[in-house]
Description:
single chain; Muramoyl-pentapeptide Carboxypeptidase, domain 2; 4-stranded antiparallel beta sheet; 8 helices
Amino acid sequence: MAEIENLQLKPQPRKRSGVKGAIAFLLLAGLGGMGYWQWPWIKPRLESARAAVTETSFNVLGSRSPAAEGDDDGAIDGAMAASRQGSDSGQENSSADLPRNVTDSIVVPPINSRPVPVEADESNPANGPTVSGVNEPDELLNHRRYEVANEESLVSLNPYSEIRLKPEAQEAVTQMIAQAKSENVQLGVISGFRTLADQDYLYFGLKAERGQSARTRAEVSAPPGYSEHHTGYAVDFIDEDRSETHLIESFENTPAFKWLEDNAAYYSFEMSFPKDNSSNVSYEPWHWRYVGNQESLELFYK
Length: 302
């Protein structure tokens, strides 16, 4: 009990919060009164300072920037200034109207794509498929255009020969040679499939070497792309005993030619350019073509 009594009798310090609050109120009131009486002097100075800050910001971000005189950054500045002008005039501007980053407002010229090849004029049947955008005619100097055969579809005339033909034509020629020789006729073949490069030399190369005109050369050799030899179905026959008659009209006087006249049709071969042919190509008794399947028939009689 004595300890409790001692605690109750111990003097306590007095709180002064009320005095501090009163002093703070008086100070604020005094400052407010001074501000009220000094406002006519303070107001114009605040407005002048705010105008200076606005002008500085416009010079940094707006169209007055030196960058607007010619480089890419100037284009960006102009776009931003235009957006602000719209806002100042009361127009609504969304954030989407402003460039998202530095490159958004730079106009980059489009890169030119490759020229589109000119398609064939389907309304004109005289125009064929195009190569590099140029129409190729179906006929040139009395020769018809032929697609070059896929070389993977060709086979050699025999294991020792470089002459290649379509399989059906190769089989027929092999049988013809065997039958002719069984009759003591030395029938042979000197030419079969030709590439564009082969035909290029035979036409342009020999034309230049011999000083021939384009039409004169076309009478005996087709321009590249217009030879039956491209198909893999055409062959040039020879008489192996008469080398002096190879690829000239006198081949018609050989036993080999006589044998072809009598037997070639049995093997589905026909002469491509007989005398007085409608193509006005020189008579070629050595040049024959295979027409024994659908593909070859459509190639030569379409």
